[in-house]
Each structure stands twice: as structure tokens, then as C-alpha cells.
Amino acid sequence: MLLLAIFGTLSALLVYLELFLATFVAQNLGARLREQLFDHLQRLSMDWHEKQKKGDLVQRVTGNIADIEKLVTDGLVDLLAGTLTLVGVAVIMLLISPEYTLLALAVAPVLFLLVSGYTGGIKAAARKKARAAGKIADVATEDINALAVIRAFTLEKRENLRFGLHVGTHREAGMRAGRLQAQFTPLVSVLVVLGTIIVVGVGGYVAAGYGFNLSIVAISASTIDVGTLVLFLTYLKMLYQPMRDLSKLATLASNGASGSERIQEVFDQAPEVVDTGIPYDGPQRLRGEISFENATFAYLKDRPVLKGISLHIPAGRRVALVGYSGSGKTTLAKLIPRFYQIDDGSLKIDGIDTRNYPLQVLRQNVSMVLQDSVLFEGTVRENIEIGLPGASLEEVIDAADKANIHEHIISMPGGYETIVREQGNNFSAGQRQRLAIARAILRDSPILILDEPTANLDVEVEAEVMHALNTLIVGRTVLTISHRLSTLGHVDEIMVMHHGQIIERGTFKVLKRKNGLFASLLEEQNRYNLDRDDGEDTLILSAFSTTTPLMSVSPLTDVTERLAAIPAHKASQTRKDSRVHLIPSHSSNLPHIMSAPAAPVLLPSFNGHTDKRPGHRHNREKSATRESDRVRQRKETNISISAQVLVEMNGKVVEKYRLDKSMLTIGRFPTSDIQIPSQRVSRFHALIHWQDARWVIEDAESLNGLSYQGHRIDKIALLNGDRISIDSSIILQYEELS
Predict the structure, then answer these.
(1) Average pLDDT over residues 416-444
(2) What are the two backbone dihedrals, phi and then psi, of residue 684, each rounded to the nearest 5 degrees?
(3) Is 545 domain-assigned?
(4) 447: which strand partners?
(5) H or E, element range at 604
(6) Mean pLDDT within 166-190
(7) Is residue 152 part of a domain?
(8) What domain range is 422 assigned to?
(9) CATH number at residue 517
């Protein structure tokens, strides 16, 4: 009895130790993975993040790592114990009888084929389920942040259908994995029983005095007795039991494997802005002198956003950047703290290239007040302290007072300990801006970037914010981006940007007298002042007039036209960034290239480039019409388009692929129809398939996705010469063969 109690207690302690160690390993592994993944995400380029879906990234940090934790907690012990048992029992059985051991393992090849076939299907279903979970998280995040818009436009039913579509995909993938698991486990049990029958049958036959001879196994008569056979069967049960147990882990292992693949996809992305490895022993506080020397930058190769910018801003000087949307103003400002890295030329601060400064030193010397200031959950004091971690309460109060927000803070019930709700929803836009200004005052950096800080404010609040800004800018190098030209009288110099270049510079009065682009912009903003009496009664300003440059249709309009060829239920899910607005033109001063004065003008709603070549829009419409007729004719005659895809890496064509079947896969897998051996390409990245009498390329839920003319797309019908970007250095060019 005592011995039984001892063994029982020892068994219980070992079970506790087993479960505790599994949990310990899983939680520590999950914590380290989350910290490393989050840190890596913070270091990836802004351009990469702008292309990603936020909910999907959150799912990778939370859900996919949870799958790995579950595998370690529930499966690691069984996996290790099963593997050790298999090896140990197999060795003992070989010592007892090598011949019977070979007979017992006769089912192993069939079992291997069974495992390979079913686990492949279960893993594919697990991948699809993981992607659907990312979509669910993305839609939920997007809709929760846009509840006011959804309610205003009564979109609840539409969003329920969109959310339900991804939930259905997630459910179907889970059900498929469950069905395969339900089939797989019994089949393993059948094979185990079959192996046992073989050993018992042959053993009984030999024990009865008969010999057994098979090509690879020969057993002499009476070489085994009943006792040895019973012992062997006991070990055989111990050999087969881990096989049964491991078969039940197939779904768990597949979920963990698909989660690890999605996490690895993020780790494969290298940060585009790399910190300098050169030791820095210079000053921690810079003076703020900024110099651009023939600087060029492009988000996509061969499509520069900034072209040969040369600009010198002495320390303490206040400079404004103005121009049309998409002219490169914000991009230029974001190069200063190295949110992006310039392609050519140089950017120097205090005479030293910014690449030679540690990122920590560089960014500590730059403060930014943006159009939409972000407040974090926490207290008011903690939000202001972001500017200078560890600042005293007196320093925080002084900064808030200079930003004209102190009186409002102390009027709140909690004062500086008032809790800030998510996104600062318990503060008005003007209050959030002044808190951001207080943060910048506390940071006390020599360089200040103001990116449309008063764009969304009414006149009264704007005056309060401008008063706070006047306190902030004293003694600093200031770069202001603004479309409200009337607020720029306090700056020392104004730079007018157009198509990525500085085309005018000077003071407010000098540029106004020049009658150039700045004067045109100022005239347009003042057109509807009540003091004017020009006889104008239009409410929507034409894109064309004698005082403004011609803004023609962006090439992206062609993309929208081609989306119409894709069925409506699919086209509605594609390229949310590529919408355009129709703005009727009422001006009589239209250029001669327009066919009618009242023709609608298409203006892109994104910050992209516009083409000023005369007749460009007219030519594109004719070209699109000819292409549409050609495609429609081929569809009617059911003739496939003979075409090929050229893979271009770093500006060189490395491979050509003929589109010789109705569906081709694109990825870095060796088995892909179009293989691209690059870590920036997902294992299964995209599909090219024949649909509605044309070739269509479609994203396969890849990480980096597909881009056309600088905009993320999900699906597009291809036209001859189209260039689809997987990455800035990887281009797919579609060519039709004669």
C-alpha cells in the first residue's frame, strides 16, 4: 500500500511538472515572439505600413502567435513523449526479434503516405482559415473606427454582409480541416489494427511449428513461443499508441505552422531605413540647419515623387511649402526625420548627412505637429510627457500654458490626471491640436515640422491654435505645410512645389506680385470672398481656368474603366484607393482640347501626379475605346489572347513566362508557375487567370500585395504593356504577342 501511494504521488508530481513546463515554454515563447514582432513592425518603412491592412497585422501579433502557443501547450509534451517512445520501443523490439519488428513496421510506408496526404490538406485549410481571420479582424477594425459613417449612410446591412462573407470563409476552412482530421484519425487506427493482425497471425503460425518466408523476412519454425509473442505484442501496443496520439495533433500542428508562416512573412520584410553603424560622438542637440542637395525620391521605381530638390534652410528660419495636393510637400518633410530614405542626392542637417546620425539622435531633434494629432490612452499628463519622458509636473504645466490648453485641463474633474479615451475622443479637434503643441513645446527640439496643423479647425479654434504655434516656433527652424495661404504671412520664405519640384520661392508679397502659380493659388482661394464682385455664381470650381495650370485625367482613370469589366460583386471589393470623383466644369474658359465646355472633368481623389500634356485625356479615351472593342470582339469569337509575363528585378528582365494555360500561380515556391525567388514575394502571392475574354491578375492574400501605378489593387484586367509592382524592385510586365 505504501509503495502504491509513493508511486501515485510521484506520478501526480510528474504530471504537474509536465503541464507546468509546457505552459512555461509556451507563454515565454509567445511573449518573446510578440515583443520581437511588434518591435520589427515599428521599424518597417512607412511606405510598407501604408500598404498593409491594420486588422490583419493585429491578427498576426495576437491570433497567429496564440496558435503557436496552443501547439506548444497542448502538443509539445505529446510530441516529445511520442517521439521518444517510438524510438525506445523500436530499439527494444529490434533486440527481441528483428524479423518481427520489420513485420510490425510493414504498415509504416502506407502510414507515411496517409500522413503526407491528409496533413497537406489540413495545412492548406489552416492557411485559408488564418487569412480569413485576418480579414475578419481588418473589417472589424475598419468598421468600428467608422461607426458614425456607417450609421449616417445606413450601411449596417452591407457591412454585415461583408463581415459575414469573411466569417463564412473562416467557418468553411475550419470545417474542412475538421472533416479531414475526422477522416485521418480513424484511418491511422485501422492501419494500427492491420499491423497488429499481421504480427499476431505470423507469430501464431510460427509458434505452431511452421516456418514463414517472405522476400525480406524469413522466420524459422518454432523460433518463438507464446510467452515471447505476448511480450512482443505488449511492446507493439506501446509502439502504435504514439502514432494514434500524434495523428490527433494534425489540425493543431497545421494551425501553428500556418501561423508561423504568416509571422515569418513579416520578419522577412527588411527595414528600408537602417540605422547607421558608424559610432557617433557629435552633439546630442543640433542647431537645425537643413540642406537638400539634388535630392530625388520615389515610392515606386521610375515614378519619382521628388525630382532634384536643392534647398538650404538656415538654422532658425521659418519656411512654408505650398502647392497642389500630390506635389510632394509632405514627402519632402518626412525625409527630414528619415521616415523614408532618399534615392539620390543628399540631405544634411548641420552639414552632416542624415544617414550618419543615429535615428534616436536625429528624431529627438525633430518635432512634428500633424493635421490629425494622435492622443494615446492614459492621462493628460502622460500624453504631454511623450515630448520629454520623465518631465516634472511643473514642466508639463508650463508647456500646456504656452500652448493655451492649461486652463481647460485644470477645469476638468481630474485635471492633469484626467483619463484620455481612445484616440482622444473626449477632446475636441482644437484641444487635441493644442495638446500636441504642448508636447512639441516640451520636446524643445530645434527643428519643427507643421503639416496642416489647422486644416480641420474652425476660425475661432484656429486662432487659438495659431496663437499657441506662435509661441512654439520662436527660435526654431520651422517647416510649415499649408493650403491656407492667408496664414503664411509670418514665414520668412515660401517654397511653391509642383510635380515634385520647387518652381517658385520668395516672401508672401514677392510671390503675390510675380503672378505665378502662388498668385494663382491665392486667387483661387479668394474667389468666393464676399468682398469680391466678379459676377461669379458657380459653386464648384472648374479644374481648368486661365489662371490655373491644366490638371488632366490621371492614368488611374483607365484603371477604373477596366474595373467595370470585372463582375460588380467582385469589382466592389477591389482597389478602395482608386476611386475618382466627377466634378462638373462650369467655366467658359476651357482649353481648346476639350470637346465641350460642360464636359465632366475627372479628378483623382488621391495624392498622385497629374499629367499636363495637351490632349492626353482625349488620347487615352480613344485608346481605351479601341482596347474595349478589341477585347469585346475576342470575347464574342472566344479566342484567347496570346501573351507573356516578363519578371523584372532591379531594373533587369530575369525571366519570361508564356501564359499557356487558363490559370498560373505566382510565388516564390519552386512549384509556382511563375517563380520569383525573393523574400519580398509570398510563397503563394498572386494568380493570373483567363476571365471574361481577358487575362486578369489577382492578389492571393499576399503580404506585400500588388500595386498598379502606385496604388494597391486586389484584381485588375490586364492590358498590353501594364506593369504590376510586387515591390519597388520587382515588376511584372504583361505583353501581348502578335
Answers:
(1) 86
(2) -125, 100
(3) no
(4) 366, 477
(5) strand 601-604
(6) 88
(7) yes
(8) 290-523
(9) 3.40.50.300
DSSP per residue, 542-580: -S-BTTB------THHHHHHHHTTS-HHHHTTS-GGG-E
Cα distance between residue 277 and residue 271, in whole Å: 15
Are residues 255 and 208 located together in one domain of the fold?
yes
Burial, 373: exposed, middle or buried (Cβ in 10 Å; 0-12, 13-18, 19+)?
buried
> 339 pLDDT band (50/70/90 cuts)?
confident
What is the residue type of 360? Answer: Q
What average pLDDT does this structure show over 250-266? 87
Q: Which of 322, 712, 610 is nearest to 330 (CA)?
A: 322
CATH number reported for the structural domain that contains residue 713 in this entry: 2.60.200.20
DSSP lists the bridge partners of residue 352 as 349
Query: Could you give the CA distance from residue 122 to residue 251 in angstroms, rounded to a whole number?
Result: 6
Residue 564: pLDDT band with limits 50, 70, 90: very low
* Residues in the chain, total: 738
User: pLDDT tens digits for 499-536?
Assistant: 999 999 998 888 888 888 888 888 877 765 544 444 44
Amino acid at 558: D
What three-state secondary structure class fits 422?
helix
Cα four-point dihedral sign 27, 29, 35, 40: negative
| pLDDT, position 43 | 82
Q: How far apart are CA 309 and CA 451, in angstroms?
A: 19
537 inside domain: no
Distance separating alpha carbons of residues 340 and 48, to the nearest angstrom: 11
Beta bridge partners of 699: 686
pLDDT of amino acid 584: 33
Domain termination site, one of 231, 252, 267:
267
Which residue type is seen at 361? V
Number of Cβ within 10 Å of residue 25's Cβ equals 15
User: How is residue 62 annotated by DSSP?
Assistant: I
Residues 115 and 217 in one domain: yes
| Contact assessment for residue 472 and residue 448, using Cβ atoms and an 8 Å cutoff | yes
Residues 90 and 185 in one domain: yes
| The domain boundary residue, chosen from 503, 523, 543 | 523
Predicted confidence band at 622 (pLDDT cuts at 50, 70, 90)? very low
What pLDDT score was predicted for residue 410?
A: 92
More confident residue, 99 or 579: 99
Helix, strand, or coil (residue 599): coil
Q: Is the sign of the CA dihedral 269, 273, 276, 282 positive or negative?
A: negative
Q: Are residues 40 and 163 in the same domain?
A: yes
Q: How far apart are CA 310 and CA 295, in angstroms?
A: 7
Question: Is the domain of 259 the same as that of 301?
Answer: no
CB-CB contact of 273 with 338 (8 Å): yes
Q: pLDDT: is 395 or 114 the higher one?
A: 395
Residue 283 lies in a domain: no
310 vs 501: CA distance, rounded Å: 9
Same domain, 164 and 178: yes
Residue 137, domain CATH: 1.20.1560.10
Residue 628 host element (H or E):
helix 616-637
Q: Are residues 604 and 671 in the same domain?
A: no
In sequence order, the 6+-apart residues with CB closer than 8 A to the CB of 518 are: 322, 485, 494, 496, 504, 511, 512
Q: How far apart are CA 543 and CA 529, in angstroms?
A: 19
- DSSP-derived letter for residue 416 is G
Number of domains in the chain: 4
Q: Which of 75-79, 429-433, 518-522, 608-612 has the lowest mean pLDDT?
A: 608-612
Query: What does the alpha-carbon distance between residue 55 and residue 63 come to, in Å, rounded to a whole number?
Result: 11
pLDDT of residue 216: 67
Amino acid at 675: Q
How many angstroms separate the CA atoms of 242 and 188, rounded?
A: 11
Give the E-state strand segments of 42-171 in sequence order. none
Say if CB 122 and CB 180 are below 8 A apart.
Answer: yes
Check whether residue 194 and residue 244 sit in a common domain.
yes
Write the Ramachandran bin of 678: left for phi over 0, alpha for psi from -120 to 50, otherwise beta: beta
- Average predicted confidence (pLDDT) for the chain: 78
Residue 270 DSSP label = P
